[in-house]
Amino acid sequence: MVLANPDTMARAKMSSPLDMLETSCTRLVRRVVNLPRAISRVVDQGLDLMTAAGGRRNHHQFPPPSVPLHHHHPPPPYQPTNNFQSNWDFLAGFEQQFGVTHPFFYACRFVEVLKMAQDEHKFVFLYLHSPDHPFTPPFCKDTLCAEVVVQFLDANFMSWGGVANIGEGMHLAATVQPTTFPFCAIVARGSDDSLVVVQKMEGPVTPEELVETLQTTLEEQGLAFDNARVAKEEKRRDDIRLRQEQDAAYSASLQADQEKVLKRKKKPQHQDNANPNTQDIQILIRFPNGERKQRVFSRREKIEAIFKFIDSLGLPEVGKNYKLVSSFPRKVYGVDQMKMSLKDAEFGTEATLFIELI
Predict the structure, then answer these.
(1) Region 21-46: what's the mean pLDDT?
(2) Is the separation of the CB atoms in 187 and 123 below 8 Å?
């Protein structure tokens, strides 16, 4: 007597018309990237991460930082909502059905997770839960709660989950527009606060396939993210260096002005009376942001000299398109007055000018 192969019997048992239709549809809608890598290498990488992390993290800890954000093809604008309670409901219901071993889902508004991920240079792993879909229970139990998936997500991503037809999860579903479930996505915060979808994973997948897709995304986007982070850091250093140079130039200018004032005070009084037009004018300049700068000018200098002094400060909020205004009496000094001397402008020994942006 020939014994039937158990796998053959199981396949025969599942090969009803409905099962065959579901299997065929699944092959059509599943859009997971499967690269030609040995799955065993990915699992080994995940296990190495588990060892490095020292086991599963407590739910009250944050995941360690990993890669920065990347801009891909943005979906329709995401509108954040206040549905904090529904996120707690999702987490409680998930743990009640599938246990406490799962990715660390942040029980807060999705936009807050996006901001935290941006600060820590991470992607967000988004999971939209469809309780009534037949593929949801096996995916959650066998894939999403698999230890290798949990450890890899917690080490490299910030995870957020919500029910696809309730509260904030429903708004996100309208934005990312899943075609089938289970649905996961790797997303990030765009420069204009939009939602950037980097990768979608739709339909049932194995733990190895999910880790493979997550790992591939990190490898493909990591170099571009590192370059963006380096460029941002270089710009920050350049801004600091420019500000230091401007401060040094201003300090030197202020010291020179003070020396000029000191020399003028030491001159004999009859010299000032003999030539009053050579007296200096101390001008206080007030900027739109409330900052003030002070410098001494000669009466023989022209209004243009004040503009050149302001431009030398390189303040980005001022730019080049502005005019100077005195308050009492109100007088405006612009392009037409550039060649007017301070003497002809009838400034006293002290004057205050306001910058008025055009």
Answers:
(1) 39
(2) yes
pTM above 0.70, yes or no: no
Domains along the sequence of the chain with CATH: 39-224 (3.40.30.10), 257-267+277-357 (3.10.20.90)
Contact 250, 293 (CB under 8 A): yes
CA distance 161 to 92: 11
Q: What's the pLDDT tens digit per position in 87-125?
A: 678 999 999 999 999 999 998 999 999 999 988 889 999
State how far the Cα of 267 lies from the Cα of 251, in Å rounded to an integer.
25
Of 208, 192, 221, nearest in space to 68 by CA? 221
**CA distances from residue 271 to 48, 118, 175, 342 in whole angstroms, order as listed:** 85, 66, 79, 20
The answer to whether residue 55 scores a pLDDT higher than 50 is no
> What pLDDT sits at residue 33?
37
Q: Mean pLDDT of all residues in the chain?
A: 74
Closest CA to 31 of 244, 201, 183: 201
Give the C-alpha distances (Å, rounded to integers) separating 269 from 97, 256, 265, 272, 295: 94, 22, 9, 5, 23
Rg (CA), the chain: 33
